[in-house]
Write a structure and sequence with these properties.
- The protein is an alpha+beta fold.
- The protein has helices at residues 22-35, 39-70, 96-124, 131-135, 143-161, 169-179, 184-210, 212-238, 260-269, 289-296, 322-332, 351-363, and strands spanning 4-10, 13-18, 75-81, 84-89, 275-279, 282-287, 336-341, 344-350.
- α2 (39-70) packs antiparallel against α3 and α9 (260-269) packs across α10.
- The chain binds zinc ion.
Length: 375
C-alpha cells in the first residue's frame, strides 16, 4: 500500500496515485516539448492535457465504482497508474446483468462527457469536428486546442475500452452478454478467445508499422485474457471445497518463549517454512521465513520468537472456501495461513496445499465431494 499516495476520498473510496504516476507527466512533457518540437510551451501543454485526461480516467473508474456499490460490492480504492486507472472491487459479481452494468458504467461516463463537451463546443464555437487540424497546432496553449485534445482523448478512451477483450471493459461486457445464454466458464472461454484473437491482430498491426506502443497494448490484452481464463477455471474447480478438505494437521509450532535458534533448527529439519506460535492451544502469532531472516539480521539467536513474530495474522476456519483462501494468499503475500477454530490452533494451510487440490481435481473432478452448495 506504500507504493501509492492518497489524493482524496469520494463516496468512501480512496483515490490514490501510484508513485510511478509522475512518469506519465514527464513523458508528456518530453513528447510535446521535445519530440513535437513544442519547447517549454509544448511541454506545459502536454502536462496540462495529460492531467485533464487523468481527471477523466478517474471519472471513468468512479462510474464502475458507483455501479458496483449499487449492487452492494465494496470498492476498496481507485489507483491511478501511468497506463490508466484501476478501480479495485472486492469481487466481480457472477450475475451477468450486474457484471454488464458495472462494466458498461465506465465507458458510459466517457460518452456522457462527450455529449456534454460537444454541447460546450457548439456553444463556444470550438472546432472539435476537425480534431486533427487543431491538434497539429498543439504547441500553442489555447483553450481551444486543450479542449479539442481532451474531447478527442475522452471519446477515444470510451471507444477503446469497449474493445471486446479482457482486461478492457468490453471483454466483461461480452462475457456478461454470453453468460446470459451460456454457462459462465464457457462464456469466459469464448470471450477470452476473442480477446486473444484481437491481441494477435493488434500485435501484427504493431509489427507492420503501428509502433511499439501498439505491440505493448496487444501484449497486455493477451495477458489479460489468459489471466481471466485461469481465474475462472480455478474458481470453477475450487468452488464448494473447504479448508477442512486440504489443510495439514501435523504442523510444527513454536512456543512464545522458544528462541530464534529453535526456529532455525525447526526450519532446517522440516518441510515447513512458516511456524505458528501457540500459547497452549491458542494461536498468538506467526513466524514466517522472511521474518526469521530479518530478525536474525537484527537480534541474537537467543531472542524469544514472541519478540519478533507477526501478531496481526490472518487466519481461516475449516469451513472457509478454498477459493477465498487462495485470494487471501495473493492479497497478504503469505505462504502459509493458520487454520483456527475459536482461537484454537488446528493446523496450517499453504498455497502449495491449494495448488495440489487444483492439479488433482483438474485431472479428476470427482476426487473430493463439494462440501458447500455452489451459489
Ligand atoms: Zn473501465
Amino acid at each position: 500500500m506504500d507504493s501509492s499516495i492518497k489524493l482524496f476520498t469520494v463516496r468512501g473510496i480512496d483515490i490514490r496515485m501510484h508513485i510511478t504516476f509522475p512518469l506519465i507527466l514527464i513523458w508528456a512533457a518530453i513528447q510535446f516539448g521535445f519530440l513535437a518540437r513544442g519547447g517549454v510551451m509544448g511541454a506545459l501543454f502536454g502536462v496540462i492535457v495529460v492531467t485533464l485526461l487523468f481527471v477523466i480516467v478517474t471519472l471513468h473508474e468512479l462510474g464502475h465504482s458507483v455501479a458496483a456499490q449499487h449492487y452492494g460490492v465494496p470498492v476498496e480504492q481507485i489507483v491511478l497508474l501511468p497506463i490508466g486507472g484501476v478501480a479495485q472491487l472486492s469481487r466481480i459479481p457472477e450475475n451477468p446483468i450486474q457484471e454488464f452494468v458495472i462494466a458498461i458504467a465506465g465507458p458510459a461516463v466517457n460518452f456522457a462527457l462527450a455529449i456534454l463537451l460537444g454541447i460546450v463546443a457548439l456553444a463556444l464555437d470550438i472546432p472539435v469536428s476537425r480534431p486533427l487540424e487543431t491538434l497539429v497546432e498543439v504547441q500553442r496553449i489555447t483553450f481551444s486546442s486543450i479542449f479539442t485534445y481532451v474531447f478527442v482523448s475522452n471519446l477515444f478512451l470510451g471507444i477503446f475500452n469497449l474493445l471486446p477483450a479482457f482486461p478492457m471493459d468490453g471483454g466483461r461486457v461480452l462475457r456478461a452478454l454470453l453468460a446470459t445464454r451460456l454457462e459462465y466458464t464457457r462464456a469466459t472461454s469464448i470471450a477470452t478467445s476473442i480477446g486473444r484473437g484481437m491481441a494477435w491482430l493488434l500485435g501484427l498491426y504493431g509489427f507492420l508499422g503501428g509502433g511499439f506502443f501498439i505491440i505493448l497494448i496487444a501484449f497486455f490484452i493477451y495477458m489479460g485474457a489468459s489471466q481471466e481464463e485461469a481465474l475462472v477455471k480455478t474458481r470453477a474447480i475450487l468452488r464448494g471445497l473447504t479448508v477442512r478438505q486440504a489443510f495439514s494437521r501435523q504442523a510444527y509450532t513454536l512456543r512464545p518463549e522458544d528462541t530464534l535458534q529453535d526456529a532455525v533448527n525447526l526450519t532446517l529439519s522440516t518441510f515447513q517454512a512458516s511456524f505458528p506460535v501457540c500459547d497452549g492451544s491458542q494461536l498468538v502469532g506467526l513466524l514466517t521465513y522472511p521474518k526469521l531472516v530479518e530478525a536474525l539480521s537484527q537480534y541474537p539467536p537467543s531472542t524469544p520468537v514472541a519478540e519478533v513474530m507477526l501478531r496481526d495474522v490472518p487466519t481461516v476456519s475449516p469451513d472457509d472456501e478454498l477459493f477465498d483462501v487462495q485470494r487471501l494468499f495473493q492479497e497478504k503475500q503469505l505462504e502459509a495461513i493458520p487454520v483456527v477454530d475459536n482461537g484454537r490452533f488446528l493446523g496450517l494451510i499453504t498455497s502449495g496445499d491449494i495448488g495440489e487440490v487444483y492439479r488433482l481435481l483438474s485431472v479428476e473432478p470427482n476426487l473430493l465431494p463439494k462440501e458447500r452448495v455452489v451459489g
